[in-house]
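User: Hi! I have a protein structure encoded as tokens and I'd like to know what sequence might fold into it. I'm fairly new to this, so please keep things simple.
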């Protein structure tokens, strides 16, 4: 059975991704920084008849928590097939780049960028033991510099801290994919699209189930799949 670790999977898109991958037959390690919230999520899945799932406590901003999560995973599995760096925060508003609080910018980067980097660094040795390792960095259209340059969407400026953090996450995807270019790793950024979750006070225009479908598509790539790309649903989108 293939194994997947999803960070921030106790709710929202991460939870739906956990559900869909479990239904596809993956063994899902459902990451949650809060044990109780994680157990509630596991129970919800069990109520749906899904038993191929286990809780992994992991706070991506805390290196000790990540190391503990890795140690725990090593006692349960020899290899990790898929890592989904999904945990993310939107940050406080306002965050227009000329005036937003630097502390807020740092906080958003701490989760959305450094969190994904340090989680990946810790789990890379387990991923290397897979026959077809896959990493999905859950990004956003707001991380695309091309889209920011070409679209005068007044709403985008409201989320500058978040956008910068996702641009940095995309850079991480490119660097990591290059580092593993001649291996069997598939490493991509994927945006779920504007999805109704806590992150945006449920203003998104699609359900978490729909958002998760894109993540699942690129989490289940085989050896012929793309690497070093940025995807939205079926299509590649510009960095
Ligand atoms: N919703 C959208 O429209 C949209 C669009 C593009 C991209 N995304 C991305 O999709 C991903 C999932 O977001 P969502 O919309 O599903 O939001 P969400 O419902 O707020 O879920 C975010 C998840 O991340 C977890 N998390 C936050 N900080 C963490 C940390 N330090 N360590 C571990 N987990 C942490 C949260 O845990 P707690 O429950 O403990 O807070 C929660 O499980 C994020 O990366 C987001 O940027 C979302």
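Assistant: Happy to help. Inverse folding works backwards from shape to sequence: for each of the 239 positions I chose a residue that suits the local structure. Here it is:
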């Amino acid at each position: 059975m293939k194994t997947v670790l999803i960070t921030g999977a106790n709710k929202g898109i991460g939870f739906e991704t956990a559900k869909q991958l479990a239904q596809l037959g993956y063994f899902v390690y459902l990451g949650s920084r809060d044990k109780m919230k994680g157990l509630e999520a596991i129970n919800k899945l069990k109520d749906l008849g899904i038993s191929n799932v286990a809780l992994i406590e992991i706070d991506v901003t805390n290196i000790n928590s990540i190391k503990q999560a890795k140690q725990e995973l090593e006692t349960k599995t020899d290899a990790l097939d898929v890592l989904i760096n999904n945990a993310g925060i939107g940050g406080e508003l306002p965050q227009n780049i000329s005036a937003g609080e630097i502390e807020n910018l740092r906080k958003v980067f701490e989760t959305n960028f450094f969190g994904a980097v340090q989680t990946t660094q810790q789990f890379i040795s387990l991923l290397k033991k897979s026959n077809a390792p896959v990493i999905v960095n859950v990004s956003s259209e707001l991380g695309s510099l091309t889209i920011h340059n070409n679209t005068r969407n007044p709403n985008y400026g409201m989320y500058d801290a978040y956008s910068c953090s996702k641009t940095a996450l995309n850079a991480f995807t490119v660097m990591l994919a290059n580092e593993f270019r001649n291996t069997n790793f598939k490493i991509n950024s994927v945006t779920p699209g504007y999805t109704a979750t806590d992150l945006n006070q449920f203003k998104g225009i699609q359900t978490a189930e729909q958002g998760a479908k894109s993540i699942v598509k690129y989490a289940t790539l085989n050896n012929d799949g793309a690497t070093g790309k940025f995807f939205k649903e079926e299509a590649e989108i510009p960095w």
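A useful reference point when you look it over: The chain has seven helices and eight strands. Feel free to ask if any position seems puzzling.
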